[in-house]
Amino acid sequence: MKISVITAVYNARDTIGDAIDSVLGQSHPDVELIVIDGASTDGTCELLESYRDRLACFVSEPDRGIYDALNKGIAHASGEIVGFLHADDLFADEHALSKVAEQFSDASVDAVYGDLVYVNKAEPDRVIRYWKAGEFSSGKLKSGWMPPHPTLYVRRSIYEQLGSFDTSYHIAADYDFMLRVLGSEQFKCSYIPEVLVKMRVGGASNRSLKNILRKSYEDYKALKRNHVGGFFALIWKNLSKLPQFFNRN
């Protein structure tokens, strides 16, 4: 079972090597790594050139943001299963993708996700927040529940059915996509109750008050568009993050 891992990067020379090594070090025997660079100017491209022979695809050109880059990666993917590892992130261990593949050995499973930890940017072994996703149920979506998108893997056929990321969203296209998948009764999800990904703190959605407000607006728009919930779902979605700062297992 081939798994396509897509990494979108722009000016992340200090962390992209760790992300690439994390993918290449996976124990799953059939992984293709697709790297989409947004024409970086900080030395990222030069570093990636040293990995070129181990990348299934490497594109470096201007794009219209991260979701445009991820859509390019999806278009290049040939694996039955598709997921993402962002340029600042790491897999929790070398067996993360093997665990994902094991879940997909059940032909009825369409999507798989797990837990995620936010870690210190300089010390990725130091946990800041623990996002314990929990089992999926359709009712949870209306309470603002969502799985951590960096841990979500879906069959490529889902993108063929539902389309890829809507680039009219600048911050919440991943949430919109998850609502499209999880809000549909035709797709079956499986949960791995383990940490699959380490995410360095400092993501775009929380980088400024302006981005936080924009993300809230886009989250609300996605909820309404997908007929999942509205204002109260948005409130619960944000409040549900508070226990992540205290939970460590």
- The secondary structure category is alpha/beta
Measured distance between first and last alpha carbons:
30 Å
Helix content: 25-40%
Arithmetic mean of pLDDT? 90
Main β-sheet description: 9 strands, mixed
The SSE string, one letter per element, is EHEHEHEEHEEHEHHEHH
Q: Based on CA inertia axes, which overall geometry fits? A: globular
Q: Provide the β-strand percentage band.
A: 15-25%
How many DSSP-defined strands?
9
Tally the helices: 9
Protein architecture, described:
The protein is α/β, with parallel strands linked by helices. It has 9 helices and 9 strands. Strands 1, 2, 3, 4, 5, 6, 7, 8 and 9 form a 9-stranded mixed β-sheet that branches. α7 packs parallel to α8.
Give the helices and strands, then pairings.
Layout: E1 3-9, H1 13-24, E2 31-37, H2 44-49, E3 57-60, H3 66-76, E4 81-84, E5 89-91, H4 96-104, E6 111-119, E7 127-131, H5 138-141, E8 153-155, H6 156-162, H7 173-182, E9 189-200, H8 209-225, H9 231-239
What keyword list fits this structure?
9 helices, 34% helix, globular
Characterize this entry briefly.
This protein is of the alpha/beta class. It contains 9 helices and 9 strands.
